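Morning run. Coffee first, then this:
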Amino acid sequence: MAEKYDEVERSMGICSYASKCNGFAAVLKARYSDFVVHEVDANGNVARLTSLDNNLKEKDDTVAKPIDVEMKGIEDTSKKRTADAIAVKNDSEEEAKKAKLSNNDENELAATSLDSGSALSEIQVKLSVLLEDEIVKQIMDMISSWESQKGAESTNEKPFPPPKGVQDGEKFITLPLIENKETRRGIHMLIKSDLVKPFAAADTVDKKVRIWHVLFEKQMPNYGKFVKDDRFKKPKKPKKEWPCDRPDFLKFILYKENIDTGTAARDIARTIRLPPKGNRFNKGGSGQVGYCGMKDKRGVTSQYCTVYRKTPLDLMVLNRERKNKYGGGNSSRQGKSLLRVGHFSYVDRDLRLGQLQGNRFDIILRNVCVGKICAPNEERISRTTEVLQKAALSMKDVGFINYFGMQRFGKFHDTHKVGIEILKGNFEEACEIIMRLKDEEDERAKVPRKKWAERFVGINLEDERSAKDAEMKCAQIVVKQLGRFMNCETSIVSSLSRKPRDYKKAFGSIAKHMRSMFLHAYQSYIWNKAASHRIAEGGKCGVRCGDLVLVEDKGLKDGGNGTSGLKGKAVSEVTQDDIETCKYSISDVVLPLVGSKIVYPTDSTGDYIESLLEEDGLSKDHFERIGDRELAVGGDYRKVMCKPFDVESQIKVYKDPVQPLIQTDLMGVQNEPLHCIDVTTDADQSQAAQGEKIIIGMVIGFTLPPSAYATVALRELMKRPTSSTYQSELSLEGDCEANVGKVKKQEATKVNSTVGITIGAALKKE
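And here it is:
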């Protein structure tokens, strides 16, 4: 049982191993915290979160203050200087000044009274243009009466309060019915003007305009509902002035648990109130969180991110959120999604996809079994350690076939099938594949899919109008039943609820990066099949005539595309002279991802790629003309073999099947210790062997270049499949593979009393 294959992996073209080293069985990703990833940036720096503090605190306290605060500080300084000046004056000068100020106050009050009188006279003149003299007199008498009371009873310390118990006839004057809409509009415009606004307000009831005194404005039925002037606006927070000598982007490390990068970026944007994509304030993508690579949901990852013109204080609110103080890495209990940020710095440019050197992986393999070993614990530990260390050394020296991992093809392994239909221009079938019933889904998710599949039951599809009505009604119901993470399905059904039977438009409503994913999945499917063919035909070591080798691969700094794309890449065909001079090795060989701008190998692998396309009803020409104009498939080149570097391993002995075996960044910040024994060295093996029940695990660490899959590297290490179908049957204690092929997938989630806890049961705990 040195090598195992899986039909699900084989169907995706994953069919070969690179070395003959013996493998072993182990549980992969029993908990999301068993998969730890640290991003390596373009300069080789590893993203590790070691502190949650604001390392730019001093700078933040002295810059980026609101303008009005800065002005207030100037005023306060001025007042202080004035007070100091007054303090040195003698008593007689102070008394003279007080008398002068008192006279000024009286003069100002008198001036106010004169201004009020002149304003009322001007108001009367303007009203006379619109209304009859008798009505104007009633309005002016009402306003003057209340203004007189205000002037007599109010003081600077206590303004005149709105009177209580006043009859409606004293609060407002109702004008006669005015049929002319323009005249009514003119009256309202006058009342809203700066001249009249301090004295009166107006509303309309049954085409009759009512003129209110401003004292009773809040008693108007529609007070504040339609008025757009500044009186009813909430005061805005002062905007911060960005220092001209500070770079525009804040760079930071994002630590996340059990959440994918895209969702985390949206949560951050919402929390710190970044303008949405496409907003007029979002200039050049400044409203988005920038990052170099997408990290999976099921894992603990640290990566570099950027945001536009934000300070550490804006982001540190993320460090104060939620219940899960220490994260899921330190516990056997249920894990929630979690975000933390730290290590801030200001940079001139935002981060973009592909601007990284690779990723550092530290992965836990639980309940390692290298075969049935009937021996004392100490001998079992020693023999297992020997096998694991040989496997790690083999992977380091030989590497692995650079397959696209199973996650490339989606949870239900059908994303490449959608890609085929897109290339054919059959958008109805593409939508149908996305919406069809999935056997592996839970019952709650199956309900809307079943309803959608039955939308045309009893409908004559030749009657287009009836078909559209049936689909629209069904879509309006189904869209409310779809789950939170069913984004593609929600986009399709929402579009069809508005424009039924327009499947091209429905597919186009899916986010662009998601639509591209379907095409990339098909490219990956063909590449995997071609790689297995090349290894089977040409071997795993040398090169042969007709192979393609990468002779130029410029990085982003040199004007290339980085991790993906053809820009900056050039290939050459291997000749007999190249073979005789040993110019190239298998590590230089590349295979194309099918597209409109790539060169195909001239050996049997090139012919095999064409035959694969024909099986799916496609040709090279289909990549030239795609029905979706926003999508383009130029193609790319990918190395057949990949070698990890900085490979390290530890052998751990533990007793709780799901206890932590590796310290996450957040556990390190919180000083959370591990409770397991590292038996990599012989000195600790005797101590670990004590006790009847022990479980052996492995922590394997390595660094991979961008777009290489850690799960594929682990497949090579263990010589075991990594598909969920196989993994779900493994046990977390006892004989790891005891249930493989003996129980149905549904039964694999239960606790087996004679064998132990299955991986399915552990997944339920998450």
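The chain is about 35% helix and 15% strand. Good start to the day.
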